[in-house]
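Each record in this resource describes a single protein on a pair of labelled lines. With that in mind, the following record should read easily:

===
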Amino acid sequence: MDRRRFLQAGAAGLALPAAAYAYQQPKRVGLIGCGWYGKVDLLRLIQVAPVEVVSLCDVDKRMLSQAADIVAGRQASKKKPRTYSDYREMLKEKDLDICLIAPPDHWHSLIMIEAAKAGADIYVQKPISTDIVEGQAMLAAARKYNRVVQVGTQRRSTPHLIEARDTILKEGKLGKIGHVEICCYYHMRAKENPPDTPPPDYLDWEMWTGPAPMRPYNTLAHPRRWRAFMEYGNGIVGDMCIHMLDMTRWMLDLGWPKSVSSTGGILVEKNSKANISDTQIATFDFGELKVVWTHRTYGHPPDDKYPWAATFYGEKGTLKAGVFGYDFVPFDKKQQGVHKDVTYELEQYPEDKTEEALERHVAPAVRGHMKNLLEAVATRGKPVADIEQGYISTASCILANLSMQAGRSLTWDPAKNRIVGDEKANELLRRVYRKPWIHPEPEKV
């Protein structure tokens, strides 16, 4: 980005500490995980700050080479970044100011902890971890090494959702809120059943699998569709519920749920290799407020305008909020409602118009999230989606899956980081790592 466009971006929304980046030495940036959202995140960062992308890492040689070419074409220096197939070799250089982490979920914890040890500030995709102990270790590492860590729950930086929080919820226009429904009705679960095959020669399947259980290579797993398998993530609850639960917590200033209960399973789509649930309901009990999640990967959504959203029910009205906009419907018919559509920034950032696989409606939120990260890096403060908030939202969603697995409600003690009175369930707080990978421990990071 040239200086003129950077200053324009700053005037549009950067706080003063972050705007000072225009006059500083460009931050040295690396990306680990050069697939779909890794590139989305990195290219949004390039749009809002004069960074120098110096390193890229991926176990897929084709994906890595493509990302290097794209970055060279988009960053101001036009330099092609160094490329690595092993994140440990990349982080061994210890020359990054900011490290973006966006591989499949089962890799987040080990990589984030090593990046913190290497002295980088971090942007890590959600959910932060695949089990709860991993998340505890990540939080401990961020604090021990004094690193700024922003989690990719970018609803906290979505312009129209910030407006809904500030002008509807915080101004009390709903009155007392007694119930929140969060949902996803996208048909996003894999339905096909391709055969297992040898991995392609450009992919290191052993390293891709890492600490996860070894499965035969399948095109359902790579590229991009690994979310079909619980071995690599936490299903639709870990992928989609975390966004809406985190958004709800942020909008209403909620901490930990007191208990979590969930039911569901593979009830309809039984023919695919995918092993994530196609139907699931989870209740996050915050005391006087229950937040209830539903996902279903078949049939129609109850509201076509809000298939992935949160609905806040208050005594004075209802607020529906999703990635494409929000609607406030007051109970008093004499009071005017409010509708707001998502903000697009296609003229300010024309690259958005042609970038492959970009969710154009989400791009402003990612840019806002990156600006917030830069401000936190400058001030050494906590970003809006600090690692602790990411840990709470991630762990809450994992507890929902564990509740479904255990067949009972789980009560969480955040002081002890344990499920109360349920040692069988506590055995599920960590996954078994495939050798030679070693599960991180909070007290040893």
Summary: The chain has two domains: 3-156+363-389, 158-347+391-444. The first strand starts at residue 28 and ends at 32.
